[in-house]
Amino acid sequence: MKYDIQVSVTSEYLEEQSRGGEYVFAYHICIHNHGELAAQLLSRKWLITDADGNKIEVHGDGVIGEQPVIPPQAEHSYSSFSVLKTPVGCMQGSYQMKAEDGTLFEADIPTFTLAVRHLLQ
Q1: Would you write out the chain's pLDDT as a tens digit for each of its 121 residues?
Q2: How many whole angstroms separate alpha carbon 71 and alpha carbon 33?
Q3: Strand, helix or coil for residue 18
Q4: 109: which of 13, 52, 93, 105 fits an S-S bond (Cβ 3.0–4.6 Å)?
């Protein structure tokens, strides 16, 4: 396959940074290029949902100020954070990618949970 980007995510609750009804979560992303061509991450789209059903959409260029080029059979990792008004929520989204042949395509970011430790068992 020419275009095959897979995204894996882990998340963690940052208790020491959370206070006053705001829950801070770090998430760690690994973007794997299993395709035949290098691909550049151009932009991101996030849908963040809290436990009350409130949704926030986030759109932006690159990730953490970068638009990395990921060679075939390589990966790019980064960490970021999100703040929720509830102790549980989820995130999902996609990256717009550009293959070295100029083809634009979307890489899905699977839904992942943000939860205070031991709240969900």
Answers
A1: 899 999 999 999 999 999 989 999 999 999 999 999 999 999 999 999 999 999 999 999 999 999 999 999 999 999 999 999 999 999 999 999 999 999 999 999 999 999 998 766 5
A2: 7
A3: coil
A4: 93
Structurally, what CATH architecture does the domain formed by 5-115 represent? Sandwich (2.60)
Buried residues in 4-24 as b, exposed as e (16+ CB within 10 A): ebebebebebeeeebeeeebb
What does the domain layout of the chain look like in residue ranges? 5-115
Contact 32, 44 (CB under 8 A): no
Provide the CA 73 distance to its chain's centre, in angstroms. 20
- Residue written as token pair 């070295």: 100
CA angle 22, 23, 28 (to 5 degrees): 140
